[in-house]
Every structure is written in structure tokens, then in C-alpha cells.
Amino acid sequence: xxxxxxxxxxxxxxxxxxxxxxxxxxxxxxxxxxxxxxxxxxxxxxxxxxxxxxxxxxxxxxxxxxxxxxxxxxxxxxxxxxxxxxxxxxxxxxxxxxxxxxxxxxxxxxxxxxxxxxxxxxxxxxxxxxxxxxxxxxxxxxxxxxxxxxxxxxxxxxxxxxxxxxxxxxxxxxxxxxxxxxxxxxxxxxxxxxxxxxxxxxxxxxxxxxxxxxxxxxxxxxxxxxxxxxxxxxxxxxxxxxxxxxxxxxxxxxxxxxxxxxx
Length: 263
Ligand SMILES: NC(=O)c1ccc[n+]([C@@H]2O[C@H](COP(=O)([O-])OP(=O)(O)OC[C@H]3O[C@@H](n4cnc5c(N)ncnc54)[C@H](OP(=O)(O)O)[C@@H]3O)[C@@H](O)[C@H]2O)c1
Prior knowledge:
Elements: E1 9-13, H1 18-29, E2 33-38, H2 41-55, E3 59-63, H3 69-83, E4 88-91, H4 106-132, E5 137-144, H5 155-175, E6 180-187, H6 193-202, H7 209-219, H8 231-241, E7 252-255
Parallel strand pairs: 1-2, 1-4, 2-3, 4-5, 5-6, 6-7
Helix pairs in contact: 1-8, 3-4, 4-5
């Protein structure tokens, strides 16, 4: 199926690793031009180099912390200078916080609020005018199933994920008259940078990553019996972002291996 991405201009926040990087790859392979950001310059350069070899000037990366409004505006200006406009924004940057109610202090609540909300608000605000100028504009928000199904070891992240789910609906309503579709994906557990870090921190001595992940999949009752791979949510993100999904807005697609317990 042709998604209709050829020649469109996409921005992926947090594109230097995991799901973001897989999304950059899918969009490029489908003919889009892609700009991505992250904070760590070494990680950005390592991600960019092989893509440059394959896609040349169709791919661009710059350091940008999405929580820094001025940096986001600078990144936006650089993207527009390169590509002349933007059709697609993927709000992906971020990470989860492991904490119960008891172990989340006020500062942690505020930090998590800042990350979850402003990682969506700032890029959306910065790129809105450019998206309005496109006749194929869309935003995809990378969210988590925790929005609907909180976990006791991620109380703070779960509550804020629910808030993002609510914000996504409001954005879809407010931006529809401006020609911008807004959709999201709800992730289960996908093997990426953050799960690599958790494996390194939590695995028993000598436990392989495959064994650790298989145990995790069983504990979490993932119907597919395994964790997701970054290219799986990336395909869902590309579909929702693409013109082929032109009648879909305000929707959330679960990409979680059937782990949800609600109907
Ligand atoms: N993997 C899962 O199971 C899962 C589940 C639910 C939700 N998610 C969400 O999915 C998204 C992608 O995560 P992932 O699993 O692919 O993790 P990952 O491999 O750690 O990638 C996260 C990306 O976001 C970037 N990033 C983090 N904070 C940023 C900031 N303030 N400004 C700009 N870039 C930032 C990181 O680069 P730098 O660190 O260099 O900035 C990196 O490129 C995240 O929002 C995560 O919370 C993941």
C-alpha cells in the first residue's frame, strides 16, 4: 500500500534512538524528508551518519531539548530553512518514570508533568503555523497504554499519560478546522533504549537480555509472548501520520501485543 508519504516533510522528536529512530527510518524509506532531534549530540550523530549515506539531504538532525522553548523554535527554524515547510510532526521524545505514589515527591511530580505535557505542547506550538500551511498536515503523539491502564510502579507517569490522552482529543478538535489531523499510539512494552537501561539495572547476574525480556512478557501477560520491536510502533506511527489515514483524527491505536485488559 502506498501511504502517500513521498515528498512530505516530517519532524520526529527524540529521533536518535528506539521508536523515534525506527520511525525516522520508515518515513525515509517511504519517500519523506525527515528532520529529527534529541539532546545527546553523540547519539544524534551516530543515528544520522548511516541515514545520510542512504538518503543524503533528505535527512537532517539537530540537538534540541523539547523542554526548552527557545531550542524548539530554533530547531523549527532550521527545519523550515532546510525543507521549506513541514507536513508531519511526531511528538515522540521522552521516557517513563518508575515510582509509586509513596516514592514520588512534589519535585518529581512537577518534573514528570513538565516532560509529559511540554514535550507535546512546545513542539506542537512551534510547528503549528507550518503545519497549517500544509494540505496534508498531521500530528502523531507517542503515548502509553498507561493512559488507560495505570501500573502501580509507574503511578506518576500513568496519571500524566492519561492527561496527554485527554489533551490529544482537545488538540484534534481545535486543530481540525486548521487542516491538521491529530492521532496517537498507545504503547505497551517495546524494546528500546529505556528497556535496555532497565535490563542493565535490574537483570540478575548472568541473565541474558532475551531471557529477561521473555520473563517480563510472561509477567505482563503480553498475548504475543514477547516485547514489541521499535519498527512495529514505527509502522503504526507512519500510517497515522500519512495521507492514507486522511479520515482518521482524534484516534488512538494500541500497539501493545494485546496486553490491555479493557474492552
Ligand atoms: N519503549 C516502551 O516500552 C515505551 C512504552 C510507553 C511509552 N514509550 C514512550 O515512547 C517514546 C520513545 O521511547 P523509546 O522507548 O524509543 O526510548 P529511547 O530509546 O530512550 O528514545 C527516547 C528518545 O527521546 C529522546 N529524548 C528524551 N528526552 C528528550 C528531550 N527532553 N528532548 C529531546 N529529545 C529527548 C532521546 O534522546 P536524548 O536522550 O539524547 O535526548 C531518544 O532519542 C518516549 O516518549 C517513551 O516514554 C515507550
